[in-house]
Amino acid sequence: MEVVAAPIPASADAAAAAKALEKKLLDLKLSPPLPTPAKKAAAAAAKVAAPLKKKLSGGAGGYVLEDVPHLTDYLPNLPSFPNPLQNHPAYSVVKQYFVNADDTVAKKIVTHKGSSRGTHFRRAGPRQRVYYAADEVSAAIVTCGGLCPGLNTVVRELVCGLHDMYGVKSVAGIEGGYRGFYARNTVELTPRSVNDIHKRGGTVLGTSRGGQDTAKIVDSIQDRGINQVYIIGGDGTQKGAASIAGEIARRGLKCSVVGIPKTIDNDIAVIDRSFGFDTAVEAAQRAIDAAHVEASSAENGVGVVKLMGRNSGFIAMYATLASRDVDLCLIPESPFHLDGHGGLLEFAERRLRDNGHMVIVVAEGAGQDLIAKSMSFADTHDPSGNKVLLDVGLWLCAKIKEHFKKKANFPITLKYIDPTYMIRAVPANASDNVYCSLLAHSAIHGAMAGYTGFTVAPVNGRHAYIPFYRITEKQNKVVITDRMWARVLCSTNQPCFLSLEDVEKAGQEEDEPNVPLVEGENSLVKASPLLCNGNGAHCNGAA
Ligand SMILES: Nc1ncnc2c1ncn2[C@@H]1O[C@H](COP(=O)(O)OP(=O)(O)O)[C@@H](O)[C@H]1O
Ligand SMILES: O=P(O)(O)OC[C@H]1O[C@](O)(COP(=O)(O)O)[C@@H](O)[C@@H]1O
Ligand SMILES: [Mg+2]
């Protein structure tokens, strides 16, 4: 089921080769390189370039390889060279340093007897042959979107990895996100200049939202002679990177575009986890600890902590599970209600009567529909097109205070902590630092081997090259019908708030079909008349 155009024979004469290249680019839904005068105008008109064509191939037992583009897909006669790592004193002693050409990584690790082998991605790592000579490489690195612990570590390891492993001397930093390509000068990055940046939070390159202008960015790449672009950012950034890779291929440039996924919210699909997430959960922990100390030291103390999580509640969920001091965790994926039987306020009252204090963790994207209903607001977006959220933390605190004010003899002391920017401004912890180094190395090996248009990340523990479209087509979300969310409900003993309809809807969004539930025993939907029974019990009715 190979859908990539067949390679052009090396023996073809110049005219035939040009014709074949044109045909091949058309097959790939790419236009041939444009003549110079027309180039910029046409590129400016084509605001968003055509995506690189999907490369799928099949194998026995339902094996599917979702491969990533290679420069030779549109530049078939590119020369390759032996990988210099063969002679590197540190790496040449490693028994099997190079990965096998056809090694792939399975997307699904849990399989069943008779199940099909499913989707695989190309395994990351150094190849026997590379498509760039060291002195030919002119690399550029850019960081985009929100801050995240580990950005500087990735930048450092890209610079040092290119230099130490492949002898690359020319690495430029693009300042201030995507718009830095065309609005700013570049900064020279050397192993010396990046030596200790991993100890600092933020990004030494600066970052921004917006500024994604594919044509202008590719003009800049072309004008500056950049031939490897490392783009560090979240889902928005990876969409931008896909568009840049498409435009570069359309212009027939020898330039690898590599995405390195960054999201503190851990909401990028397919990959195991994103760098900085571990550090963020650790930092969130400290805010929860503070809220717990405050709440448990006051009469009817309520500690409210707002954590990041625009659309996905992973930080809130993991921080809650790690802490065990949390009484209520609210995430965007799980709807809730305040008033009446089974509502949040009723639960808060009961928890305060039982324990004398409580801690609430709320992800910033939770309850947005409720807030919108209770106040008038203007629907605004940031320069990247992300919806500007209403402050759920302040709103929730106001609602809780209002509720208890009306109660006779029920004074509460509420403390609100919003550690958002403190959490993401810290340097990466040890495990994220190591993770960032491996990501950078995998990215470099992929670019040097001539691959392009891919994101690098671990999938089931092994680093893989994943086509951009796979990363951007869907956002990773907490599955509220999954065991992990059940663990949260179990640890907090909070109401699940869900209606039958919510559960069914959540089930439809799941990636994999569930093993059929045993009716009457573990069947949540059918066997639980206690679903949202309002007594503060879990979905399954256990008090
Ligand atoms: N659909 C898109 N196509 C191309 N570029 C995008 C898209 N969405 C966002 N971007 C660009 O990616 C960069 C970062 O996006 P943003 O969503 O703010 O952060 P993140 O990459 O962390 O998700 C911005 O420069 C933005 O303009
Ligand atoms: O205030 P800013 O800079 O827009 O950033 C806040 C947003 O960034 C986020 O942290 C997401 O960023 P990521 O791209 O790292 O996942 C959201 O949780 C939050 O809404
Ligand atoms: Mg985004």
UniProtKB/TrEMBL annotation:
GO terms for cellular component: cytosol. The keyword Nucleotide-binding applies. It holds the Pfam family PFK. Its cofactor is Mg(2+). Substrate binds at T263, I264, D265, M308, G309, R310, E364, Y421, M422, I423, R424. It catalyses: beta-D-fructose 6-phosphate + ATP = beta-D-fructose 1,6-bisphosphate + ADP + H(+). The keyword Transferase applies. InterPro entries: ATP_PFK, PFKA, Phosphofructokinase_dom, PKF_sf, PyroP-dep_PFK_TP0108. Keywords: Allosteric enzyme, ATP-binding, Cytoplasm, Glycolysis, Kinase, Magnesium, Metal-binding, Nucleotide-binding, Transferase. Its EC number is 2.7.1.11. It is found in: Cytoplasm. It comes from the Eukaryota. Mg(2+) binds at D235. It is an enzyme of class 2 (transferase). Catalyzes the phosphorylation of D-fructose 6-phosphate to fructose 1,6-bisphosphate by ATP, the first committing step of glycolysis. Belongs to the phosphofructokinase type A (PFKA) family. PPi-dependent PFK group II subfamily. Atypical ATP-dependent clade 'X' sub-subfamily. This is ATP-dependent 6-phosphofructokinase. It comes from Leersia perrieri.
